[in-house]
Amino acid sequence: MIRVVVPYTKEVIDSIIYEYQEFFYPLQFAFIFLAFLMLYFIWKNQSHKIIVSILAFFWIWIGAIYEIKYYFSINWFGLYIGYFFILQALLLLWFGMIKKELIFVKNKISLIIVSFLTFFYPIVQIFAGTHHYEISIIGMLPNITVAFTLIILFMNTQKNIKTLFIIPIVWSVFSLYWNYLILFN
What we know:
Blueprint: H1 10-24, H2 27-44, H3 48-70, H4 78-98, H5 108-127, H6 142-154, H7 163-184
């Protein structure tokens, strides 16, 4: 049996997240505002290009800033993860701006879930004792942004956007496995 060795501990990844969030503080509030702006436009069924632009910005930010600049310092694979996040942003822009195949419709259950991810989940983390520089903010950290993206994509009315699900789903499987290794090795 092949044993996968994680090149760092939970404490190391937490320190990278802390350093990253501390450096960009208080930018987190702008990211929360942008996420709520997306939800507002979905609720009003308007400005689909703005929704796509914000979502693509989140993926570019995470790819270029978090993955390549910060995560890469502890894991060489962070460079390639960053490239995939940037690729996802380009795909979002392609499908949303050029092909105009991202038209979002209001779905109350989905909006409740993304509202929870945007607002209540960070509050839950604070009450659980998470330092404010380690809180998962949509657009700032990958896992919560991937979950947010998947839910937003499920609110799309077009059916031919399967390509947009590949990177988020692969990331989700990779992240679950990697977090398992970090926690239980």
